[in-house]
Amino acid sequence: MDLFTKKAQKKIYISKLDCEAIVSLMNNGFTFIDSCNLIENNQNKNMFKTIKSKLEIGEEISKVFLEFCPLEYKSYFISFIKFLPFKNSLSLAISIYNESKNQRKIYLKKMVYPLLMLICTIVGIYVFILIAFPVLISLMKEFNNDLNHIIKIQKISYILLNILFVFISLILLLILFYIQKNNKVKGYKLISKFKISRLIKLLVCNDFARFYEQCLSIGCSTLESINILKSLNEKPVIVFLADKIDKALLKGEPMEKAFKSIYFDKGLYRFLNISMYISNMDEMIKGYIKVNEIKINKFYNIFLYSIQIITYSSISLVLVFVYQILMMPLNIISNL
């Protein structure tokens, strides 16, 4: 009985598809209630009935919607509703969430195979050195007593692999620490001081530019856009960058100068500097995003190709080494 009660009490949210449909209909002149009526079906009719009844007694649409807002959009919607009308807030929340999701999916998809291959190669070599190598050496001792050079190679390889494991473990620990929401800004500040941060800056500034462009596309002013970005609690680094710009603007600095910081990609500064002399900043931001994505893909490809080269080279070296060891008995026999 308790199980059925829990199921009955389970929170129901508007589906993401329904949210997109609501925005689409509202953009075409329908009211929120009309939109709900049009997309109502057996799955959502009770929920929409509850929403409409709450609206009929005078509750605010934003507060009512928040109760049923999909969790994926909720944090964004909460940030935007402080500055924008309901329709724009929901539209922007959907756009930013979908953009972030798509970008993440694209980059992760590219990285999965090379990284898995690298991990498998390292683990394979480690297992080979620990298990297979000693067996091969013991077999070779029956044919040749002078195996000091091979034993040295085994020891050196073992030490190098241990160092590599420690290094990778430290990197992973740092990544795990700095990807925590509360530590992201600290991590970004730290890495921005080094030249190796170029790819990270490109990724972050690409996000910043996309979110900024989304705000401009729905008619927000520059100041409104910056304030909206400052409220994006789900994106602490974006909040940090927006806050930097806001403080610079409050000091009376021009917009383009506000972006001249180690925390911003130089390309973004150059694009914004040019945009000061043309009327359509929105198009310039879109141009920056396109150029930036080309750069990001180039960096990713170089990184992934490097991993593949290292992986294939390591496998080749191991195979050559094993082949030479296996050929030793034949060489000894042929010399007899």
Summarize the structure.
This protein has 336 residues and is mainly α. The chain has 15 helices and no strands. The longest helix is centred in the middle third of the chain and has 55 residues, at 86-140.
Describe the structure.
The structure is a single chain. Helix content is 79%, strand content 0%. The protein has three domains: 87 residues; 76 residues; 107 residues, Receptor-associated Protein. The N terminus is likely disordered. It is mainly α. It starts with a helix and ends with a helix. It is built from 15 helices and no strands. Helix 2 packs antiparallel against helix 7, helix 7 packs antiparallel against helix 8 and helix 10 packs across helix 12.
Task: Report the sheet-strand fraction.
Answer: under 5%
CATH architecture heading of the largest domain:
Up-down Bundle
Q: Assign the CATH class of the largest domain.
A: Mainly Alpha
Characterize the overall form. Answer: elongated
Helix/strand class? mainly alpha
Domain tally: 3
